[in-house]
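Subject: Sanity check before I submit

Could someone independently write out the structure tokens for this chain? I want to compare against mine line by line before I put it in a report. The sequence has 579 residues.
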Amino acid sequence: MIKPISQAQLDRVCRRLRFLYDDRADWLVDRFYHLIGRYGVGVTPPAASARRWDQKDVLLITYADMVHTRGETPLATLDKFCVEHLKGAVSTVHILPFYPWSSDDGFSVIDYRQVKREYGTWKDVEKLGENFNLAFDLVLNHCSAKSPWFQDFILGISPARHYFLEMDPQTDLSAVVRPRTSPLLTKTATRFGECHVWTTFSADQVDLNWQNSDLLFEFLDILLFYISKGVRTLRLDAVAFAWKEIGTDCLHRPQTHEIVKLLRDVCEIVDPRVNILTETNVPHAENVSYFGAGDEAHMVYNFSLPPLLLHALLTGNCDYIAEWLQNLEYPEGACTYLNFTASHDGIGVRPLQGLLPDKEFDKLIKAVEKRGAHVSRKANADGTQSPYELNITYASALSEPGDEALGAERFLCSQFFALSLKGIPAVYFHSLMATPNYEEGVEKTGAPRTINRRKWDAEELETLLSQEKSPQADIFRRYVQVLRRRANYPAFNPDGTQEIYRLGESVLVLARTSTLGNQSVYCVFNFSPEPQTVARPADFAPLQDAKKFYDVISAKTLSSGKRGITLKPYQAMWLVPRS
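---
Independent answer below. Compare away.
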């Protein structure tokens, strides 16, 4: 028997549907009510946990076939790797789109309810879910031109014949903002003649028509299906572009926000453990708007972090990132940031808007180009183009030509900084072992993003990680070790407090305190290639009282002494006061 939905929950869903679809709302609420229980989801919803997240929560971003070997599916190989190497270090595995796809390395979905045969089966996915929480992508702005939905559109078969946006090519769409320079409209031959369909990202990724309520219910069904397969975090890919309105920039429309709120409402009804994560790689103020009033996304990517941190470490100047952190507003309620430095995409630079002067921005672009970055540009409404993404691995971006060891320390400093921030850390698979630029892949595909998407042969990777003198193996061991240690410190709870201390141009301290206020960890970072001393007592008040500190990262006890604590070039410390 299906557990009754409260009147307050139904009223909330009705308000969302009325905002989106006006006079059809009452009928759609009835349709929604009958959807509950599909796949067994919502029949007996689990109780909401008193703890949505804590310091043990770390998300791993990976492709389904990131590591592979003969004789077993890539998903099975990934499961073995994660269990053997990452148990206790990460809590959630975000498997990037593992559905049948036709382009964009998964983000042009052919069938949302199937696992790509080459990757494995749903049983493989569920097996991974036995040891880790699972995160899936809900690619809701577009689908593949080779999908059954689009084929039905071409043939005029309902309901999918109304799932896509036809547009007169003479329509003035000059206000539309998007991160591509390819044609916005793509000519398509259908049973009824030629038409032009909306394609924000590529001709193979056809935008979906969210003004059609049948499409909404298609995705609600997919949402319930994913929950039945064990998903705990739903990443809404490119959600900012979902709702189109001619004459606007077609970004962040009020209806788009309402869709996100509705998806959260549905999750709270059928499985309150599920988190909504929005992917909106845009300027910071626009990005955080997806927190809503605590009723929208549970998590938002902290998109300004990767480029700001990169700039600070390449210039030795932490002023800009410190100022940003001091002004960063944290949402109340069940909401937090997802802190990351790298993902399957490049490093987005639009989120630097208003945070970094043009001169400093140009310095950053030149520095990463020197290290092999492919800079992707977007089309602006005025016809100009500007950088929007740096295609380079984070390790290569922080490398030091001629000094591999210094580059390694700078890279680890960046990773430990991201792990220190208030919020939930997300770690890209390649960051764990500081994978360098995959130029060979770019040459093969012609796609700049391939530089950060190398796939590993399992035996080759295991051999690399087992080598005692391998710099990548050393980084992997230190990284995973710190992740496991971090899980033991409640001061890193995403709901704990954070204070920022600037100790000169190159030293920054994050003071993290637990939700109960009974533990503090002082995260100290040297952003320069020179040793820096944190002197007592003037520079940093906590050093006035404690004579000794335990450094969580090095697992050593330190004495501050009269001269204070000296940090090596790019060293990071997590200091716990000891009496």
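---
OP: Matches mine. For the report I'm noting this point. The two ends are 58 Å apart (CA to CA).
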